Amino acid sequence: MNPGIQKVEALDAGHFVRVEWEDGSESRYPCVWLRDNCQCPHCFLRSARARRLVFEDLDVNIVVKEVALADRKKISITWPDEHASEYEAEWLKKRCFSEEARAEMREDLFLPERQYWGSDLQLPKIPFEEVMYNDESAYKWLCTLKKVGIVLLTGAAARQGELVKLGHRIGFLRLTFYGPTWQVQDKADANNVAYTTGKLCFHTDYPVLQHPPGVQLLHCIKQTAAGGESEVVDGFNVSNKLKKQNPQAYQILSSTAVDYTDVGVDYCDFAVQNKQRIIDVDSRGQAVRINYNNATRDTVFDIPAEKVRPFYAALKEFNDLLNSTEHKFTYKLEPGDIVTFDNWRVLHGRQSYPSGSEVTRHLEGAYADWDVVMSRLRLLRKRVLNRD
């Protein structure tokens, strides 16, 4: 994008600057924002891409003294205190305040597009080695993970430690009370229901934390011959269905604070307590995170008694939708498979399997935060697409 500027002028008694582009479009920039984002060395530390200007020195009612078109690729502004600022055309165009430009910037920075699915999921698969050593494949993996919510990596070695390598490929893994990585297998005196052979109902991991892990990684090292199938469901897709089917139930689940608890000993001893809404929504009422784990939902429930039964009715309807055959997808991990999924969106479960005298099923698990994953995605995109 190499936009050219046709004309520039001050508007509204100097409170706005209007830019007319060569393609005939126009942009209006508030002067307080322009002064706040001056790119000169005094106001901006280029090596850190960080603002040096302290907010106390910003006049929120500032107006321009003079604005000029330096050339068709740059505008210059002189402020009342004679401070001078310059703004490149491309920089300005990307930061236009129009709805279209802002939507384009949101797409570029956050990749908000979602591909919803149910039992018809075509599980995306990418070889583990390609992700580890090929930037295009790693970029494809993370883009698909963001859009679809789940990707299966195939062909990893059937031994512990592969997730640590994958963590380094992203940046770093998330440490929790269960350790940097954790072993999902049948254990005596299990400190987590996952460490048994029983069925695991659909859940997201760790809603007991104020900031639950964004991405979960599960590596199959050993698989039982009978049972142990994995199940997943698109929580955002189901939330949308619930909102249409029963808006009142959706409202209850997106507004009621549910108590979660987790107490025990693993990486260290812990006593964690938190409140979460089953469906976290943004300002538009759109689901942005599911916080649902029946195993760690506390017996304490901090709401008035008369609201308890309506809550249970709403949760039952949501749970029934999660478990409906049209929404859930079932598959079985093979040794060397690593399933990676969005823990804020995809609920996962497991079918039961027979217990034995020896360990018959062994998965290694780990977490990563979305901040870390999205950081790597943006860096890979810049490298793969040669973008600034």
From TrEMBL:
One of its GO terms (cellular component) is mitochondrion. Pathway: Amine and polyamine biosynthesis; carnitine biosynthesis. It catalyses: 4-(trimethylamino)butanoate + 2-oxoglutarate + O2 = carnitine + succinate + CO2. InterPro entries: AlphaKG_dependent_hydroxylases, GBBH-like, GBBH-like_N, GBBH-like_N_sf, TauD-like_sf, TauD/TfdA-like. It is an enzyme of class 1 (oxidoreductase). One of its GO terms (biological process) is carnitine biosynthetic process. Gene3D superfamilies: 3.30.2020.30, Clavaminate synthase-like. Its EC number is 1.14.11.1. Residues 117-367 form the TauD/TfdA-like domain. One of its GO terms (molecular function) is gamma-butyrobetaine dioxygenase activity. Its cofactor is L-ascorbate; Fe(2+). Keywords: Carnitine biosynthesis, Dioxygenase, Iron, Metal-binding, Oxidoreductase. It comes from the Eukaryota. Residues 13-92 form the Gamma-butyrobetaine hydroxylase-like N-terminal domain. Catalyzes the formation of L-carnitine from gamma-butyrobetaine. Belongs to the gamma-BBH/TMLD family. This is gamma-butyrobetaine dioxygenase. It comes from Chroicocephalus maculipennis. The gene is Bbox1.
